[in-house]
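Re: that chain you flagged

S.,

Sorry for the slow reply, it's been a week of failed gels. I finally had a moment to sit down with the sequence you sent. For the record, here it is as I used it:
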Amino acid sequence: MDGLEEKAKASGASKLVVRDLKEEFVRDYIYPCLRAGAIYERKYLLGTSMARPVIAKAMVDVAQEVGADAVSHGCTGKGNDQVRFELTFFALNPELNVVAPWREWEIKGREDAIEYAKKHNVPVPVTKKSIYSRDRNLWHLSHEGDILEDPAHEPSEDMFMMTVDPKDAPNTPEYIKIGLVEGLPVSINGKELSPASLLSELNEIGGRHGIGRIDMVENRLVGMKSRGVYETPGGTLLFTAARELESLTLDRETMQVKDSLALRYAELVYAGRWFDPLREAMDEFMKSITKTTTGTVTLKLYKGSATAVGRESKYSLYRQDISSFESGQIYNQADAAGFIRLYGLPTRVRAMLEKGL
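Prediction finished late last night. Pasting the structure tokens below so you have them in one place:
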């Protein structure tokens, strides 16, 4: 936070407002996405997508407090964030005007932006030699631009900031136990923590084992493809734990419906539609079906991997007395013959037709 007020006033602001949104961010945005299992295009854990609505909501709140008639953002005209900010503004206060300098001024790219900042004595943490576009919050760190604009180019190791190179991670595995209540994380190794504190600790644990690196080409909302590299160490551990606990507590049909809705949920969040009634309604569904997703998951962390090696829940649908190959009073194996004949009847009828029987 050092120097922000001086920078703001030197840039023309009359006042600087700083809000600590960490707990709100994790509790009200990250945890619902985690409970929903929302992952965009198979990989992306929505770090920037979830952060924009909490920031934009705070901007709307401050605008109301100071009597402002407009809000502004520094997003480019090519990215997703402009949509996320502005849809939140529209949803929470449709009367606010929106100022987006990058779209309105003669700034064509990041080098133009750096030149503008230099001309007006505005310090910025990038140079023309290191021009990565980064976004960091409690959930993740994203990297775009520079050498990453070529999808064939391997990321440089010195680019990573939250995770060690997996080959340099400890040579001994570490075991951790994550506790969840109704689909939401509450503890690490039996120690209960606030949402932000829990995530911060998992970031440190996952980061030192090189866990949570993702390199992907994604479809942006505005129509183009872009390449991004993401570091999400704590988030990767939480998603792994939540998914593994659900393997005990959700039946097949519920899990399949949840997974299908999770894709739609992720698309809504990615597209900036956090405050849409549809996402809110889907969130109520996710909250309902994870009421029994309570228990613990033991993860084994080793050189970039997080593997579930233990799962426990008082609501577990797994019954050893049914599943065991050694015994079982409830499940009569002879019943399977009749089940297979009925289940396979359409297959037999089709084969009979083809053979003229």
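What I noticed first: The chain has 13 helices and eleven strands.

Talk soon,
D.
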